[in-house]
């Protein structure tokens, strides 16, 4: 029987978009599990209302090891800098390079299909789909070059598999990540690199301006069933990432785990 508390001691975990929201929760969870965490984001400062301490400092304050590197994931050259930063985290007990890559950075905008401009489509897809594609590619190349196969976990969305209003450009980017995950898993299986994804449902984070408060009002009050529920919180997500990155999931690749309160089965 596998461990319910995976240990990532002596492993380096890169989390893109780790400064706030889902990424922040993931990064801190890996830090709590003993990993050396590298947060790759445009800004080290958390964007959540009421939060002041950067993610890497939260991990350090809990006696963990963490660092921050500035990165726009839409630029593959900046992802090269992230990989190099992970290689520089070497010490006597830690092999340099990426052991786990979490491609989580994302951009969300709400727009009716007929009103999406080419510029908005390109930017959303550059961050979400392009960022995940080259993040996966560069992490896999690092792992294979070092002959140290690791794990890649991508963040997609419940919109990858079901249509919703005002999200066509965002859904297109997240659907691309789902197929990237499956295709990369197939091609990299022979190298021992596993690639999986997590599909969150609606999560109350700052990425959806004006939506988070609405979502909180629609959460269960105790008078309604807990599942299915309309909105989740960042804390609902990390367990899926830790599982997919752990040895407990050594026979799992090309898979997407839905963490959406049962929304996709309703």
TrEMBL record:
It comes from Halalkalicoccus jeotgali (strain DSM 18796 / CECT 7217 / JCM 14584 / KCTC 4019 / B3). This is Short-chain dehydrogenase/reductase SDR. Belongs to the short-chain dehydrogenases/reductases (SDR) family. GO terms for molecular function: oxidoreductase activity, acting on the CH-OH group of donors, NAD or NADP as acceptor. Pfam families: adh_short_C2.
